[in-house]
Amino acid sequence: MNRRWFKGDTHLHTTNSDGILHQYELIERCKKAGFDWAIITDHNFNTVEKSYSSDGLTVIQGQELTGNNGHVNVWGAEIPFEPPYNLENLEAYKAITDAAKMRGATVSVNHPFCSNCPYRMDLDGIGMDCVEVWNTIQHSDNNKALAWWVSKLDSGEKIGAVGGSDFHRDYGVRIFGMPTTVTHAKSNSPDDILQALREGRSVVTNTPDSSMIYLTAEEAELGDTIALGGGITGKITATKLHAGFVLKVFNNSKIIYQHKATSFEKSHTAHFGIREKGYIRAEIDYKLSAPAKKILGFAEKTFLTAQGAPTPETADELFWAFTNPIWIE
Fold first, then answer.
1. Dihedral angle sign, alpha carbons of residues 52, 182, 103, 83
2. Three-class secondary structure of residue 9 per DSSP
3. Of 213, 207, 142, 146, whose CA–CA distance to 180 is shortest?
4. How are beta strands 37-40 and 4-12 bridged, if at all?
C-alpha cells in the first residue's frame, strides 16, 4: 500500500470555546506551519460542522468532551446530542462517545495523567481508539502517559498513540504545533487520516520541522503486522539529532538498538535484528541539564498543577519523538 507522510495536530481550540484565534485565523496558522491536516476540538462545541479542505489543508470535524472527570476528543463525526452534556460518570461519557462512534467517530482520551486536569475514570472503560500520549509543550506528565501506553502494548493491546498541542494561545513561548503528529496515510482525506491515527500509523515529534523517525521491519511499516519466522531485520532512520539525543529501538521492553549523538546529525540510519514476538517501536530521548530541569519544574508548578495539589516530580529525561509500533507475530 502506497502511503505518504502528512503533518497535523489532533487538538486545537478557537474562540468558540476558550482559544484566542477565530477559526479562519487558526486555519491560516496551520497552513503557515506546513500542516496537511488539523482537527479543531473546541470544548463541548461543534465548530466544524463538516470536514472540508482549505487550499489543501484538511480541516477535520472534532469536539473535546470536557467535564470534571476527564477530557475526551471525538473526531470525524458529529456528536448527536446538544450541550450541556451529562458528564457525571463513565456511563454518561460512554453514552455520548458510543453514539458518536455509531456515526463513524474516532475517540481519543486526552492528557490522561495531567496534574492539572487528569482523567479520573477507568481508562479501560471508555473504549478509546487513540490516546493522547503527548499533550502540549513537553513536560513530566507526558512520561506517565507514555509509560501507561507502553504497558498496554506489552499486554498486546493496539491503541493508537497521538500528540496534540492543545493550542489555545501561545503563553510567551511557542505552544502551537508542539507536538506535531505525522501520519503515514493513503491521503490527507479525513477518513484516511483518522484511519491512520486509529491504526497507529503515526510518529509524534516536537514541532512540524523537528526530527522524524522512519521505522520498518522488512517490508512492514508502522501499524503493520509481520511474521517473525526465524528472525527478521529492522531498519531505523532518524533525522535532526541534536548533541545528547539518544535514539532507542525497543523490541517489547528491551532496547535492541541505541545511538547517542555527540554532535548534530542530519540523519542516522542503522539496521538491527528482531528476535522476539510482540512489537518494535522507537523513540528519541534527551536528558535535562540542571538549569533546564529547574525551569521546567517552575513551569510545571506554576502552569500545569491544579491549585492545592502537590507538585509532581520533574523528570530528568523527556522524549523528543516517538513512533507507534510495528507488530511482530
1. negative
2. strand
3. 207
4. parallel
Q: Does pTM surpass 0.85?
A: yes
For the chain, report the end-to-end CA distance as a whole number of angstroms.
20
Q: Could you give the 3-state DSSP secondary structure of residue 148?
A: helix
Phi/psi at 294 (nearest 5 deg)? -65, -45
Residue 319: which of 160, 211, 214 has the closest Cα?
A: 211
Which pLDDT belongs to residue 327? 98
Cell of residue 145, nine digits: 502517559
Cα torsion angle, 47, 51, 57, 63, sign: positive
**CB atoms < 10 A from the CB of 317, how many?**
12
- CA dist 135 and 296 (Å) reads 15
Count Cβ neighbours within 10 Å for each residue of 262-284 and write b for 16 or more, e otherwise.
Answer: eeebeeeeeebebeeebbbbbbb
Parallel, antiparallel, or unpaired for β 246-251 and 254-260? antiparallel
Q: Where are the alpha helices (DSSP H) in the chain?
A: 23-32, 90-102, 140-154, 190-198, 290-303
Nearest CA-CA partner of 61 in 52, 130, 70: 52
**Cβ atoms 217, 279 nearer than 8 A:** no
The alpha-carbon radius of gyration of the chain (Å, integer) is: 19
Render pLDDT for 84-138 as a digit per residue (tens, 0 to 9).
Answer: 999 999 999 999 999 999 999 999 999 999 999 999 999 999 999 999 999 999 9
Q: CA 95, 155, 216, 147 torsion: positive or negative?
A: positive
Q: Hunting for cell 509481520 — which residue is that?
A: 226
Mean pLDDT, consecutive 10-residue stretches, the chain (329 aa), reads 94 97 97 98 97 97 97 97 96 98 98 94 97 97 97 97 96 91 98 98 98 98 96 97 98 97 98 97 97 92 79 91 98
Positive/negative CA dihedral, 264, 267, 269, 274:
positive
Q: What is the pLDDT of residues 210-230, one digit of tens each?
A: 999 999 999 999 999 999 988
